[in-house]
Amino acid sequence: MRNTTEQFVYKLSEGDASMRDLLGGKGAGVAEMTKLGMPVPEGFTITTQACRSYLSGSNDISQEIHEQVLSSLSDLEKATGKRLGDGVNPLLVSVRSGAQVSMPGMMDTILNLGLNEEVVQALISKTDNPRWAWDSYRRFIQMYSNVVMGVPEEVFEQRLSERKTERQVSGDNDLDAEDMEWLAHRFLDDYKQQEGREFPTDPTIQLFESIKEVRANADTPEDARRSQELGAEGIGLCRTEHMFFQPDRIEAIRRMLVAADEEERQEALDALLPMQREDFTAMYEALGGRPMTVRLIDPPLHEFLPKTAQAVETLAKATGHTAEEIKDTADELTEVDSMLGHRGSRLAVTYPAIARMQTRAVVEAAIQVKRRHPDWSLAPEIMVPLVSEPAEFEYVKQVVEETANQVIRESGLPMYCSVGTMIETPRAALLAGDIAAGAEFFSFGTNDLTQTTFGLSRDDAGSFLQDYYDKGLLQEDPFSHLDQAGVGRLVEMAVKYGKRTRPNLKVGICGEHGGDPSSIEFCERVGLDYVSCSTYRVPVARLAAAQASLGRHAPERRKDSNQENQTPPQ
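-> structure tokens emitted (570 positions)
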């Protein structure tokens, strides 16, 4: 038995499908397969609560979680008879992020973690296949560099293209073992040049750095500052729910959820208000006057309720409710398919008091910062998530506007608060013209829009999409590169309909598509104003946006240049 008050790491054999909230959709699914006796490789899952613990602290893994991961790694090594980093019989692992509900910003899989030159030599000795060993290593360097450290993929793709040109070959498969070894060493050089330090050869460091990197866009002042350092011109998506998971906030949101009446619920929200205001004040200060779009709470509320018996008892003592009452509330809020359930704008329809509290926090923070910095241009932007019906948006917008206008009047400081929405369903895209009658900006949540358009779960599709790639049914991952034929057509249609109603409608996208060059080129082509991506993808996004803009305006520049070079009439 573990000597700890909370279990943050679970063996696959310890979970099942009912633990989706704690293990994430992917973790619970793999655990259920293990339980059914299917041939699942050994592994372990780090809980969503561990992620909350990470986000609520100093953005570092706590000692308790660190020790549990090492203990689980030791169990994994015993079960496989291999050791991470061993020079004779090495263990290689994959790291994949997941969540209860798929959200923008989830990272890609990192394969073959644990590789270094010593391990490569061990693989060559065991398999007598040097090309495969070096190819695996250069792919791992590229994946780790891009996913964990944010090094642009183009850096490595350019190296690969150069080598194929030198060898006068067209395909990767035409390169031999010597080429793969050369590429691996060049990739290491490129990493050092980009990051200013050597690539980590210690597999344990590789593991923990990969575990850390599961966040995206900018949800904390630290993220905001870092994104500006990397060249971002503002924050296109600030997800307020991440702030709720911090220890001093989670109890207040839980009090609100288990409240017996509106008075008790409002007391809990009144306790949350100064915390949220402090969060947004710090964000605005970090941005230095640049714009920030704040999304109202999006995920289903059951995610915030306690998952362990001890946490239930703690909440029961704090609120005066019984443990059974709290469990009943959790049961009432838990859904079969929470991604398509009571979340997004639907929460504000049921609990408008939450939207009022968040709006007040945002606007009061903006006013407070504006008083300190009169020269800054501050205009709060509040985004209503997951809208499918124009009347639904109008209801939430009215709640937001009434609150914002009241706060502004009370302050005596002139300020304008705009209200927009996130387009995440095909119906919203089809009715974009009607929604734009009230919405002042659109942000396309292309991860959820991809899920709802394809009818694919992002958390689960990875288990079978490779078959589609192998058989030529799909050319690329629609969650990595925007599906321009389907999802893109909906985006283009929504932009056209929306701007027909509101010509000055501001439009952009949020999520990892916002950091993908081919997706950014599409966004430029259909007239989007901005892209929002995770912090470390900002340099790639800026470069891709510049290239897309230059490409789009190239004919105009050529025309101007030709006119300048013509001999003027005599």
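The domain at 216-383 is CATH 3.20.20.60 (TIM Barrel).
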